[in-house]
Design goal:
single chain; about 120 residues; two-stranded antiparallel ribbon; 4 helices; 2 strands
């Protein structure tokens, strides 16, 4: 059986809430900015999203290293952020189709469980 280590609750909260807070701060600061990169122009939202994905993954990796475990929701969040964040950056989609599809897709398993009676 794996040993689960406990960490300071403030550190855990910082690792869990830090990446989304950094994303929102970056977005608010860059929302009116356009950055030319590799022959294409990227809005501030795209730059903030591109920075958010690796920051979130590093935060989750640190949390896993310190505690020895991850919850299912943390793993699911990482998968969703990488998938939809990657699509958002790749398609240069300003908050629209891909970013708004995430919560809908996240709710599908819940709806399926409710329909099944579990």
């Amino acid at each position: 059986m794996a040993v689960v280590k406990t960490i300071n609750p403030w550190l855990k909260q910082g690792l869990e809430l830090g990446p989304p807070l950094l994303f929102f701060v970056a977005y608010l600061r860059l929302q009116e900015t356009t950055v030319p990169l590799g022959g294409a122009e990227y809005d501030g939202f795209i730059i903030a999203t591109a920075a958010f994905v690796p920051i979130l993954l590093v935060s989750i990796a640190i949390l896993w290293t310190l505690t020895g475990k991850l919850s299912r929701i943390q793993v699911f969040t990482a998968i969703m952020v990488v998938f939809f964040g990657g699509l958002t950056v790749w398609l240069r989609d300003r908050p629209g189709d891909w970013i708004s599809a995430g919560p809908k897709l996240a709710a599908i398993p819940d709806g399926g469980g409710a329909a099944d009676g579990r």
